[in-house]
Amino acid sequence: MATEILALLSLLPIAVVALLLVVLRWPASRAMPVCYIVCALLALLIWKVPAIQVLAATIKGTIVAGELLYIVFGALLLLNTLRYSGALQAIRTSFQGISTDRRIQVIIVAWLFGTFIEGAAGFGTPAAVAVPLLVGLGFPALAAVVAGMLIQSTPVSFGAVGTPILVGVSNGLAGDGTLDQFALDAGYQDGRSLLMIVGLRVALLHAIAGALIPLMVVCMMTRFFGPERSLWPGLQVWRFALFAALAMTLPYLAVAYLLGPEFPSLLGGLVGLAIVVPAAKLGWFIPANANWDFGPPSGWDAQWSPAGRSESANDQSSTQAEATDSGTDPARGARSVGLWLAWAPYLLVAALLVVTRQQTLPLTDFSPVSWIKSFRMPVMNILGSNISEVVMPLYLPGTIFLLASLSAWGLHRIPSRRYLQAWADSLRTVLTASVALVFTVPMVQVFINSAGGLAGYEGMPNALALGVKNLVGDAWPLFATFIGGLGASVAGSNTVSNMMFSLFQYNVGVQLRVDPLWMVALQAVGGAAGNTICVHNVVTASAVVGLSGREGSVIRKTLLVFTYYALLLGAVGYCIVWWSSKGPLNLGTVVLAGMLLFGMGLVVRAHQRSEAAQ
After folding, report:
1. Sequence-ordered list of residues with C-beta below 8 angstroms from that of 466, at least 6 positions apart, any chain
2. Residue from 353, 380, 319 nearest 126 by CA
3. Please, what's the b/e burial string for 584-604 (b: 16 or more CB within 10 A of its CB; e: otherwise)?
4. According to the model, what pLDDT value does residue 587 have?
5. Among residues 141, 1, 166, which one has the least CA distance to residue 76?
6. Which one has a higher pLDDT value, 64 or 565?
7. pLDDT at residue 332 tops 80
8. What does pTM read for this prediction?
């Protein structure tokens, strides 16, 4: 079968997801079973993958879905515990002491705190931490999910202490051999040197695109969730947004250069918080009389809140909706909790995420990550196939959320009856999300494990990439980021996308006679951006705040930022690899100029509309 036809067929499961979720606005619980069936039929009938392999991939997907639901449950339980203890009220008050302006709050919580959590844990954990925290502060649930998804771009390549580079790129390039051998064959000193080069290039590309991410998050808030429905209130805080972006990305870039791929996001987020929070308290770069809000909850769109309800800023969450239905109000009877006690569970989460991801502790030979991973439940060679999965329950962030919840139960002296109610509320919300995830993740696994069929075709991911490469030729750098992004959006992981496509991207660079490590870097940044439109990440983040069924609404918004990210860095990559042979006036610079003019047009139009409204 022709390569181009195979590429179109490989694209079909992704296209069906886009059609049902984004265009037809089906809830994921209805759309994903259909998408799973489409993917399974393609594997069985076109790729001729043995039925036992499809079933094994489905079983692995179900196991992974269970891990995700465990993370969702833990995040929900922590949120509900803090609501029943009254701690969220204290946290809300502390943020009001920094700034009552929602634009400033979302930058601090989503961009900076979310980056720190991504650097420590990765794998979608920022959404499970930052999204419920934003809801607890009084953000509409849908706005919180969108913000939580948008920041899963710049920090992701160095998430979980560098896993997408150290595991994804490393294993992807090594193939069946070792990275050190691959590096020697490619003319580099060793595997670590090669990864340092890739990591620095990835950080540089992210710093370019990430400079506008905080401003984009704010503009998305004001355009889609503000009373004005305008970009202009978001654009008015451009100085603070750019300051917050640089406060993270400059240390991030320095760490990538000095220390390597492990700590750019973790230390970048931490340094950014240390710089930006005091600056916000002093009012630096913030417009005078800044106090922007979403307007009264009674005027919110019904789709912004769980179960189609508009709730008060103090009580808005899925927990509140469910608790009210059951006759128990989380806010009623909660004791006053001091600020440090209120923050203690989140500080415990951050500390445990950092410590448990370290290879060794300072001045010791003890490896926390090795010890944590030693508790494992392997499911090897499922149904006799080569598909396996290893569950490491202590490594999953869900366990850390559970420990934090239990600590809050004791520290905040929550009555047992109210704590049990928090468990019940969390379980009900998880059950709502389970249908979507139980079909989403198995579809992903069938898609990934479609190689080795009797038809002899490449697996669907590689068939898709090969078809695009044959179609676009020298323009490939413009599309390399999109391939990485599509890989991550389907697989749900920048790490998996890098494992699938790093060697492919490297080989394309060799064929084009350009520096192949730039192609690997474009793959990595595109894969990071793909997390913003990843279906099961959106399903997970939505479930945490009781918005199961609104996944299409989230993706329609995050798709705009993914397109910006992938197109901008694809154009930058094109300029870098072809500058010496094609000169400064090339396809990349044309695309960059077009994006600049488009952005300027948006700003002018937003200002004109604001002036007209006044």
Report:
1. 3, 6, 7, 458, 504
2. 353
3. eebbbbebbeeeeeeeeeeee
4. 94
5. 141
6. 565
7. no
8. 0.84
